């Protein structure tokens, strides 16, 4: 095998436009968000869990797999599509062989799930989602339905004390009080019933006509259902089933302008999957990403921040670096960038799911640990303005973002720019609160003076604090009515 497989993936590592100090390299979604197709769950327990989830505000998504050993952009190099460039390779088959061969070297001997869980809890995350299987089909858990898994007795990883990585991580996370979810890719680029060796793969879809070979497709459907059943049966309490690979979907859910003509009907019977899972996991939140209908319990814009609040649950999934998994020499966001990203999302009613990945040994880069620690330190002090809040008009104005709790509390969160030496002496916080107000700086619990202005109050920041507060990721001011 080559020392390292290198890929240049234009669609994986997005080059995005800087739009504001708070969003950095994240795109603001200006197009109409397709929430008009959202169908709210009817199940009482699902609705209750979804409400709890909306209060969490901050979670982490861990990508780990063969790509972690190789240090490349997930499994997309296997996709035989024009946008993929495989540096160092002259032919697809050699790359695919080397990629899948990484299973013989992947061995996360340094993985300490308890240390992971404490790190994410201390970062202020309230939920964790772990990748059980990416599009390549390699399972990070002990699936009974394939040998292409980390627990395969012929692989070095199987000799570890806890070879079932998914179980290890979920168990440790629950012990730290985190809600847990399972990421699962619906397509499987190693399954013979998805990419049949009789034909070469031609894109991300099945490489055969499923109408001509219906029994083969049904075998894949059953395989998928079996894997999802074992994941929701054998891994303790699961709060979220997070399904990726949205092109595997009923053709009836595809609009005419989305390439419906000629598309295969990749229906895996989500109704049966959801019903079966919820018998064992009552209240399970199911996120069939980008497939409009009753199995998309919340929306998941990727690397995007919505322009304004929408009347349905949503979560921005955003990478800490440029990739979802670990790649060498990646550029990671600072603690301040994450704090400001989180604030901008929460002010519009969403959650932030931050994507991070360990290397093949199970270690997280020091910079990742540092950023998470900075975010956690800020949330320890300012979490009251983030967790269990709801959006309130005007949501944001310039550097100031708003959240609220109930009818008597409004938070103004001022986000200093990188060049700001001092924050302003006066910060105007718009609100409709009645009666006597208490105004508190969360950073030190100090009471602040204010005066009424049209539509709100003008809060005075003491001169002695302005320079120090400018160094913070965000300055939270609590306004509450007695």
From TrEMBL:
<protein>
    <recommendedName>
        <fullName>alpha-L-fucosidase</fullName>
        <ecNumber>3.2.1.51</ecNumber>
    </recommendedName>
</protein>
<dbReference type="InterPro" id="IPR017853">
    <property type="entry name" value="GH"/>
</dbReference>
<dbReference type="InterPro" id="IPR000933">
    <property type="entry name" value="Glyco_hydro_29"/>
</dbReference>
<dbReference type="InterPro" id="IPR057739">
    <property type="entry name" value="Glyco_hydro_29_N"/>
</dbReference>
<feature type="signal peptide">
    <location>
        <begin position="1"/>
        <end position="22"/>
    </location>
</feature>
<keyword id="KW-0732">Signal</keyword>
<comment type="function">
    <text>Alpha-L-fucosidase is responsible for hydrolyzing the alpha-1,6-linked fucose joined to the reducing-end N-acetylglucosamine of the carbohydrate moieties of glycoproteins.</text>
</comment>
<comment type="similarity">
    <text>Belongs to the glycosyl hydrolase 29 family.</text>
</comment>
<dbReference type="GO" id="GO:0004560">
    <property type="term" value="F:alpha-L-fucosidase activity"/>
</dbReference>
<feature type="domain" description="Glycoside hydrolase family 29 N-terminal">
    <location>
        <begin position="35"/>
        <end position="384"/>
    </location>
</feature>
<keyword id="KW-0326">Glycosidase</keyword>
<dbReference type="Pfam" id="PF01120">
    <property type="entry name" value="Alpha_L_fucos"/>
</dbReference>
<keyword id="KW-0378">Hydrolase</keyword>
<dbReference type="InterPro" id="IPR016286">
    <property type="entry name" value="FUC_metazoa-typ"/>
</dbReference>
